[in-house]
Task: structure prediction
Amino acid sequence: MALGESPLVTGQRPRYECLLLDLDDTLYPLSSGLAAACTNNIEDYVNQKLGVKKSRVPGLCRELYKTYGTTMAGLKAVGYVFDFDDYHRFVHGRLPYENLKPDPVLKNLLLSMPQRKIIFTNGDKVHASKVLNRLGLQDCFEGIICFETLNTLSQITENNNDWDMPIVNSTIPATPITCKPSKESIEQALHLANADPQRTIFFDDSTRNIAAGKRAGLHTVLVGTSVRTEGADFALESIHNIREALPEIWEEENEERSKNVVRSRGAVAAIETVITA
Ligand SMILES: [Mg+2]
Result:
């Protein structure tokens, strides 16, 4: 243990300061049908706009997604030329957003958590904002780290990668697009969020994103299953189960409140303030 990391010292600081939360299939269930519709739309785009033979499309998309993090990152990496906004409009524009309903239970949970909360998604800004609005969660987050945040125009350069490049040490082959689960995307998100990985909890429904988050030193919660996979500190069937699984998110606040009560013993007004806060 390094100097400055002893429990006596760290005990003075909250254990968790920041929550990084994925959006799709993490803040709402897979059963909403958005993911399935998204896959269909991507396949239609690759067929209709990029001219790939229909029979080859599902296999190609699967491989690119598996290797490059997102199908879009893979398409760019292997040399397809297309406009990012056009892709996002086509793929997300026709999603059944009406399937997403306001989630006041999740809203109350999020608002009651004392930590900073930031969305970390591979999706684009318009999509993220539509989903959050539909769920009624638009006011629950300090910020959104999304496709545009991770990929400023200056960072996106033309592809010079080799499609056959092998995956070494679990790293994703280079692609001009920054997205989860690349190490770079997670480091960038932590930098943008100004967050210390050791005091940050990362929520995602993707097992490989969770594994990558753990490699970056984050506390991790796999959402959508109760089975923990590699790198997952916790696994939640639903984000709604968070209080039962991770009471420590609220404990610091409770501890702080108890301290305030003890400090204020005898001062009725102060105790009332704590109770009613
Ligand atoms: Mg997701």
Notes: Residues 22, 24-26, 204-206 surround magnesium ion (CB under 6 Å).
